[in-house]
Amino acid sequence: MKRISLILLIIFAISTSCKQEEVKKEIVEDKPFTVEMEVKIKEDDVICIYFKDNTIGFFNEDMAIYKPLVKSDSTQNLIFELPEGIIPNDFRFDLSHKNPNQTMLVNKITFTNKGKSFVIENKDIDKYFAPNSGVVFNESDRSFTFKKNDDGNYDPFLSSTGQFYPLLETLVGSKVFTEEVK
Question: Which of 132, 134, 130 has the alpha carbon at shortest distance from 147?
Fold first, then answer.
């Protein structure tokens, strides 16, 4: 009788453990692709990330997420959740939308998809993202300041470099880079 009770207890423990693993796996796979930025800013502003997938060839407003920034002496964590079902193949970070007197320090950017992630630390940010003419990167303190472009437009952003795509591929697979835009 003791053996039967022990065997039933073991079977119950194993089946419960398997069900918990299935639930954990479903939760991880159901979460959307996320980008988390840890930033420190001197003035109020708005930051935006643009993303694209194989359905479009160029960044557009339909695939953009805006977040307000409030000036602070401490760092802020911003979490951008991409819409369900989106598998990105590129990113662009519009660092400032309204304040050309802004100074921004990006401590790190974390990309997460289906339980896997990678982090780009401040010390490597210029390896993976290149500034346009509206962004001035200060190599000594690794911060960003902003200015109007030569044509008078204010549009400071960072674009992905070729070294970024192998990192992204670890989260999304290679098909998102090889399939044709629909």
Answer: 134
